[in-house]
Structure formats: structure tokens, C-alpha cells
């Protein structure tokens, strides 16, 4: 378990699937995370991916989201990439930045990572502001980066953070 100021991160389990799928089903989260018609299957697939570590984010004893990371292990390009989603009812409370800081500190201390990336949709201004609060900086626009549910290609924003730039 990893403890932040307001959140606790613990390895997500099969018991978390219904709650995480329900959060992913909210319009505010589904817009960015999608996942097909069976969100429980999408969450189970994330948990089964051996290259990704998924933590349930708890606040006041309740699962309010998930944060996951995976590593590029090539020693010449080594870094960790993050993804996060939170229940919209908890937005604006600083829980996202707290979860990100907590996992990054763990990745620095326990895994020796020095660089981190995250790649929100270029249109997800709320996420971009949240990531900037912990020190992530825009690197560049990933043009036509991901296909949306509307079938069209949408831009992403590549952001990165060096360990000594972590804010808070």
C-alpha cells in the first residue's frame, strides 16, 4: 500500500472490478477512457496485463478511481508512463494530483525511475491542469493520436516530468 496526503493506493483486485467499471461508465470518465460495451471486461483486462501495475485509489475508505503505470525497461530509454481516472464526484478535491505524486514518489524510491510520461487527450483540459499541478510539462501534440467513439482521430498531448521537477 502507498499512502498519500488524502489517498491510499493499493493493488487493484478482482473485487474492485464492479466499482471501477461503474466509475468508467460515468459520462465524464467514459468520454476519455472508453472501453467498449463491457467495461467490467475492460477493467479485468487492465488488471490481467502483466506489463501494467494497477492501483485502486481509496479516499475515506472508498474506491474512487484507479492509477496505473508501466515501464519502458530499455536502459537507454527507461521511464514510467501513467494513466489515471477518478470518480467525477471527487473531482476538484486534489485527489488526482495526490495519487500521481504518491505513485511517482514510489517509482522514484522503489524502482529508480527518473522520468515519467502521461498522454491525455489534447481536449481534456481538466486532466492537463491536474497533471501540471504536480509538475508535468507539455512536450508536444500527438496528432491524430487516438480514435474516438465518433470514429474520428483526435489529438493527444504528451507531457513529461523529471523526478527533480515533482511539485509538492
UniProtKB/TrEMBL annotation:
Keywords: Transferase. One of its GO terms (molecular function) is protein N-terminal-serine acetyltransferase activity. InterPro entries: Acyl_CoA_acyltransferase, GNAT_dom, Ribosomal_N-acetyltransferase. Pfam families: Acetyltransf_3 (PF13302). Residues 7-164 form the N-acetyltransferase domain. It comes from the Bacteria. PANTHER family: RIBOSOMAL-PROTEIN-SERINE ACETYLTRANSFERASE. This is N-acetyltransferase. GO terms for cellular component: cytoplasm. The keyword Magnesium does not apply.
Amino acid at each position: 500500500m502507498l499512502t498519500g496526503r488524502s489517498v491510499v493506493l493499493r493493488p487493484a483486485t478482482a473485487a474492485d472490478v464492479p466499482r471501477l467499471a461503474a466509475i468508467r461508465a460515468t459520462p465524464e470518465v467514459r468520454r476519455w477512457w472508453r472501453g467498449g460495451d463491457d467495461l467490467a471486461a475492460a477493467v479485468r483486462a487492465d488488471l490481467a496485463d502483466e506489463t501494467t501495475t494497477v492501483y485502486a485509489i481509496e479516499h475515506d475508505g472508498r474506491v474512487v478511481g484507479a492509477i496505473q503505470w508501466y515501464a519502458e525497461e530499455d536502459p537507454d530509454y527507461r521511464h514510467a508512463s501513467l494513466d489515471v481516472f477518478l470518480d467525477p464526484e471527487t473531482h476538484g478535491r486534489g485527489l488526482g494530483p495526490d495519487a500521481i505524486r504518491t505513485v511517482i514518489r514510489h517509482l522514484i524510491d522503489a524502482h529508480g525511475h527518473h522520468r515519467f510520461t502521461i498522454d491525455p487527450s489534447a481536449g481534456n483540459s481538466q486532466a492537463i491542469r491536474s497533471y501540471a499541478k504536480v509538475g508535468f510539462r507539455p512536450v508536444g501534440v500527438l496528432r491524430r493520436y487516438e480514435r474516438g467513439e465518433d470514429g474520428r482521430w483526435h489529438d493527444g498531448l504528451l507531457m513529461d516530468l523529471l523526478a527533480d521537477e515533482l511539485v509538492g
